[in-house]
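Hi everyone,

Forwarding the result from last night's run.
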Amino acid sequence: MRRIVTALGLALLAACTRAPAPVQFFAEGMPERLSDWNVVYVADNRLHLNARVQPYTLDSPLFTDYAHKLRTVWMPEGKAAHYQPVDALDFPVGTIISKTFYYPVPDGGHNGDVVLRTADTGPEPDGGLALNKVRLVETRLLVRREAGWIALPYVWNTEQTEARLMRSGELLPLTLLAADGSKEQVDYAVPDENQCAGCHGTDLKSKAIFPIGPKVRHLNHDATYAGRAENQLAHWQTLGYLTGVPAGNLPKNPAWDDPAASLDDRARSYLDINCGHCHSQKGAARTSGMWLDATTHDLLRQGRCKLPIAAGQGTGNRPWDIVPGKPDDSILPYRMGSNDPGVMMPELGRSVVHAEGVKLIHDWIAAMPAQDCGR
């Protein structure tokens, strides 16, 4: 179940924790410390959100080696994002979007580099993170300046007291401990600046970077505020953080693991958030001819009976991107299930296979009416 900070939680938090300086927006330069921005801060062995920093969740989060994520947005007083039906919300200059990656740790607190492999449940109900229960790994900022967005990756120190700018990226060895006691070694990769631009460069022609997650279809679901459920987009409007929302039904993706949603809708939602920012009409993988974003409805463009373009060894000797009814003959789940850097998809953002995601796509293809792609 998604959990998000409540207004009551914020009030209680403010009452017992010394408030830091306000959020600091830097119109230029690259501050060396995450704390310079004051978006999140450490106090009383917890990670807190500063005033007017709004946490949010996505219906289907991007997979990153089973990391949990605390997402926030902050905008200057009197500024708001503007509704866009397909692309990310149009955020004003001065916006700071943060995403903190973390893992729960075993009972008893930190034990070297051992972290728990569990489903992403989001932060605690008060919006913070208890640092005796989690290991902070990195916090990525997307900052909207006059010239456009910039991406800044900050890596947390061992003491969990500060995160430092790591423009060249970082490789962090971790051990994922699953519920059944099995362990998996992970080389968690903090992206460098070029890799950040590679994923967030959702428009290959302009080469500008943009947010990926905060799109209406990813935000359009209920969250809990002050003990009651409210649509997240409606809450942003109440806060003055969102304008221009039209009346009527809005675009909406289901959670990829929602048993109440259809298999087709869940699979398309998963591919949209994990692949669609590159595999789209404007994205970096547009030349592949395989577009996996939510707005592509042409079945050939989605990969059904489509021949691959310049996939090389990534085909695994399979001739078609998707063979309806035959997932084991399809390139898409083969690449998703690989850790080989020359084969794996997505190319960035993971070092382990998302077993649950691969199974979803496998089941989706298996459920398609069988089709002989050779005819």
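Residues 1-17 have pLDDT under 50 and may be disordered.

Cheers,
N.
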